[in-house]
Protein 1
Amino acid sequence: MKNKIYLFTVLFSVLLFAGCGNSKGGGGFNLFTIDQDKELGAQVMQEIESNPAEYPILDSAKYAAAYKYVYDIRNKVLNSGEVKHKNDFAWRIRIVGDDKTLNAFCTPGGYIYIYTGLIKYLESEDALAGVMGHEIAHADLRHSTQQMTKIYGVQVLLDLLAGDRQMIKEITTGLIGLKFSRSHETEADAASVRYLCGTDYYAGGGAKFFEKIAAEGGAQPPQWLSTHPSPDNRIEHFHNEALERGCSGNQEYKQRYQQLINALPR
């Protein structure tokens, strides 16, 4: 009974202030708490890592050099001072051994997955840092649970509190394949630049994936960098954001990036 009274108090407060979100801060209407983001992320992580046929994750001990490399990039992003939930979420990385897939994603609560296909497709460390910044932003700005709030509404909290396992399963499955809105993608792009701006990387590194796609004839970008807004607009947005913020970093680390590629399975 005590839990139910608390829940309805929270729901009333959330609904009362639902219109007060700040789009720049990822403050859209969200019925989920930070703890629920963490719990949902852990559930999604378990779903992913119990399915090695679809998600062949590289062993972190066997490929220690590759994991150290990507964790070093992650640490630069997290230590920028711009990641709001740096100390709240896990920010755990797993590399998916699939060379055919150009993909990366981050669950609520900060579980990051990067495909070897994407790593090998990119040509510089700042480009991968830009992608990682974009994915970290989706979790940091809590875009997934904002989207799930729109889909499920108030009832989801009641069912989760009641321990509805079917609802939890449905939500975790939905989170794995979740598509973000145009505004969420734009926010994540801007946040990627903001995170990298205080590092020695070129802060607009996230544009380089799109630039390579364009140079090869405009192939369809993968879901993690959707076409909303268009790739051309996103290239411009990355570069303009870095320029407007006065970001001074210019390091690409192209030669060093080969160390990461060489550390992956051939």
Protein 2
Amino acid sequence: MKSSHLLIASLVLAPLVGCTDATDTSETEDGVATTYVNIADFGNNPDAWYGLRDKLSGEFTNVCGDTFCEGDYSNLTPLGLDCSVTSKRGNVHDCSWSFAGSLDFVDPTSAALEIDAPTFDCRFAPSTTTTATQLIAALQNASSGIDLQLPGTSTSIYDGLVDCFQHPIGKTPVTIVDDPTPVYVAATDYYVTAASRAKWAAAQKALLDGFNNVCGDTFCGGDFYNLQSLGFECSVTKSTGNIKTCSWVFGASKYPDIAKTGKLVETVQTWKCPVAVKGTLPALITTLTAALPPGSPVPIDRALPGETTSAYDALGGCLP
């Protein structure tokens, strides 16, 4: 399985069988044109679709490290997965799987933290005679749904992702300079030993866990319901460990609209949230990972070195 993915991911493939904007007349009755609904709203079992979304997201995570995530965007993250179906029979018309990813680079002479955080709108669809029930059952019962040949086509979801990830939306050019004697480096590259790198990773995870714990009652309660952290990074003076700038990157999608033609209209976005810190990288790590007495602020709410504000405060002025 892994070797076949590596081979396919190295090729430029044609997009999956797509969807046209022509009105589906198979359900036109008494001159009334077909209308479309989200697949999650069709029938009486939305949990079946949500369960399939989780399954496909897990499959993507399992293969990404050896395939798509070996490219520019090592943190490609699944966001929304939706299909439009005809309202009476549930024939699948258009499907979209949105993703976000990020790439960051610290300018070795200026300490500027450059970030490219594009999104991806990956389309796929089975034949137009395939119903919602049939598509869900086929993908759910397959040992690998993303590799399954979609009903009525010769391609899989995986094939479509290969092409899709070559077309980032909102890409920001990042100039990467290889400097053997940098004045500034990324926090991720500051430490040499595995033990010290693990401490920085623990600090990043403390922020991620804090965000995930509060998002459902705060940021994720809005239109961008599936906000995902793509990474927290800082630029650091290599000789002293002093932090120059930090940024926390996120991606999310809205619940899609459906055009009269049945085409899904997706809104996918990323945010680059500056986080103010005045101190050293070791001090930041200590702030975020120190075990404090019960009742003390959790890491995301703790005042950051040299500041009276927290990482959560920074997000409040940045995320929707």
Protein 3
Amino acid sequence: MRFAFYGTNIMKQRTIKNTVALEGIGLQTGSRTRLTFKGSSAGSGIEFVRTDLADRPSLNLRSIDLTGSASRERRTALSIGPMEIQTIEHLLAALSGLSIDNIIVELDNVELPGLDGSALSFTEAIKKAGIVEQDEPRKVLKIEEPIWVREKDSFLGVFPGEGFNVSYTLSYERPALGTQYFSADITEENFVKEIAPARTFCLEEEAAELLKRGLGKGANYENTLVMGKSGPLNNKLRFPNEPVRHKVLDLIGDLYLLGMKIEGNVVAIKSGHKLNMEMVKKLRR
């Protein structure tokens, strides 16, 4: 693997033009959080700032040591010292899909808002702020040899290839889910139309159990697809295979923990946040 400029046409780094804010309830903690997005200089990377903590601690994806960070149940979290941020994968997916290299994300609570359970609102807020190119070329991680991680029947591999392609296979015994497959070249247009609107989901029998364990306090039938025997309860699918598209969304977001895009082909079978994080750590090594 090596760092490289993207293809023969050197792409410029990008940030946002104007400050923009949004707020909502965290899916797991139920806490209300306000996010403020601010543009930042070329080469500065993606930086999170906890404005509710003393001295406003921050962490930057390009410099953070992921050793002490891990996936939490049903979400991805980062921590450094007393600072932690949770459920960051949907925002990171939006930043990756829109090719935002440099941005400051201020938040006043531990968990990012769940909003509608997808990356759509994050995507719309970033586009509303305006996207501008910067003077420095973008770096990507070019995959030159296969690398993979696996656990039981779950697999995640990254292989050499042009551009950024993600293929995902989801498999559940429940008929409403069954086996679903989705594959796409992840361009900005494809991400906005085909992936960003896909919402998170859980099985009907999981919902009560998650609440018993102190999770899902901010979840409801609107921001989470609760899958019953024949389909989502009190809701309708945005895509016939919306669950697998959301898995692709999560994977794109988790891989952006690298702080830069990958040039290569990503193949996933039943991969979740834990395996995604293992891949990121392996790519960093």
Protein 4
Amino acid sequence: MTMQEHPLRRALSNELHTRPFFGYDGTGRLIRYMFLFEGNDSSILAHVNSWLERCSVTIIENSEKFRREVLEHFILRIERHTEFITITFIVNDNTGNMGLPVFAFNKDAASFLPFDMIDTMPVPVFHAIWLEVADFQGDSITSDAICELLAVDNSGSSQIYEGAGQVHFSFDIDNTGFSRIILLKNCLNPDRVGRSILRLLELETYRILTLFGLPNVRSQMSELSAMEKELQELIQNLSRQIDIESNDVDALLPRLSKIAARVEEMSAVTSYRLSATKAYQEIFLARVSGLNMSRLDGFQSIPGFLNRRMLPAMQTCIAFGERLNSVSERVARAGSLLRAQTETMIQNQNTALLASMDKRASTQLRLQQTVEGLSVIAGTYYGVRLVEYIATTIPSQYLPLAITQIKALSVPIVAFIIYTIIHQATRTKHRSVFKK
């Protein structure tokens, strides 16, 4: 009985082998083009597939992340990533030259490569890397010779793998649009050369991707500084309002809400790129570490070059992200403080209102009691008059007492009856109000 497998098991296992790099023997060159895309790479893929069809090569399926095709004069390598795609031409030099490349960085000498396919790509080139591979048997080489070959004034150069090879970077873009790298291998076997080439290409690829967030950060820097200043002024104003126990703190809420909205908008614009920059930076530093670089006498080292030129740019992106998070946290704390002060102010107002209502209720009660007393007096007066009127209609021989005496005796009785009626009516009214 065959065991059941999770549908993602093999896909996750094969992830470690999706972009292998094969051994590289002899000398030659590798040319890598890098294209960014938004959303998906369908237009780039369609353009490449059109060229593959003309070359009678199987097209790349949407599910493929990696393709390596051995063609007549070169090897085509295509890698698809989350937001970019790379197209690499791998050429082995069959001239037998073992020293420094004779036709290094010469596009005309590689006319057999499909540069026209690259030139007609529907999206612009984001980066282009030209890597020359040559044998080097420990002969002395000067910094001036490397700079002349790379056509730069200053290069970054280091030994790799404890002297098993040398690497020289231009770290710029020449007039043909390429960043240039020279790999001089001394005692590296083909498999190790292949791994070294992959790391060098990825180092340069992720170097430029790490810096991709810098323009975005710089464009937002002045706005962030303005928000920090405005937030500081608002917090100082809020502190003063609290000190003097002012009731005007509500006026600060619209300003704070406006700052909070601007912070969220800026975070939405920059968060993805800052996260990607951090991820690319870690990959870039891992590739630098993986080459096991050491100093090459007479040359400016690659780590030293990068630390002096690239580290400030990376720190700028990191500092911007930290400042943005700090502003967001300060806005949240200011909002909490403003809400607490507003709630305190509302509670004080409610306390004053309740006290005022209690005072008015006491006044109304006293007024009501006065009105009730007057009502009892008035009712008693008219009640006694009514008793007198009734008594006069009765013959005097049937009356037990004189009319004056009857009136006098009826006063407390009528007053009690009137008081009871009014008091009962008041209680009934109060019960109906509380029920509502």
